[in-house]
Every structure is written in structure tokens, then in C-alpha cells.
Amino acid sequence: MQITASTVSLTVDDVAASQAFLTTHLGYREQAAADGFASLTHDDAACDIVLLRRGIDVLPAEQRDRHATGLILAFTVDGGLAAEERRLREAGVAITMPLREEPWGERLFQITDPNGVVVQFVEWVKAEV
């Protein structure tokens, strides 16, 4: 088996709100969409995202009322993390966890989309020894 792409499927209450957030602020673009469904892709190595409206009947009955909670959608970036936080802040996106650096060399910050999906940006830096 060869994996050719990675996709995360998120069940949300308002597909259009998450879709607009991801396309406006994070550079995703729509691949396909229908009532209660959107498939988004990114031009680089980011994973694709499928948004499904909670309760949609294409999901098995036991999955229809689940919500994308407790999940952190994390993107590792190569440089420019502080500039990206500043760009998002200036665009009016609430930074729900400000930029910080951990002692083990992880620099990160978080934003949250309109449906409560936490998006984290991570950049690895050399830890001081």
C-alpha cells in the first residue's frame, strides 16, 4: 500500500463557516462541495480537510452526532511563525494561544475556527543546551 495523500475529516455544525475560515485565512481551496459537505485542499504539504455537517446521513448512524472536539489540527511550518501569527492577528483572527517557545525547541501558537476547531502552528527550533 502506498499512501498518496492525507485527509482529516471534521464533523462541524456549520460547514460554510469553517470552509470560509480555512480558505480566507489559511490558503485552502475548495475541491468539491455539496449541501453539508466540503472538500478542501492546500497547494503544499498540508493535509486535505473534509468538512461534514453534524447529522449528515452519509455518516454511519453512530457517527452522525459526533463533533470535532478535543482535536488539534496541527501544521508544522518551516520559518516565519511569528510573521504568520502577526498576519492572522492583523486579519482579525483571534489568537487563542499566543506564540510561545517550549524548552524542548517547539515554537507554537493556536487559533480556533468558528466551529471550535483548534488549529495549531508549530515550528521546531534548536533547543539551547
UniProtKB/TrEMBL annotation:
Domain VOC: 4-124
Pfam family, one: Glyoxalase
PROSITE patterns the UniProt entry points to: VOC (PS51819)
InterPro entries, alphabetized: Glyas_Bleomycin-R_OHBP_Dase, Glyas_Fos-R_dOase_dom, VOC_core
Protein's UniProt name: VOC family protein
Organism field: Streptomyces millisiae
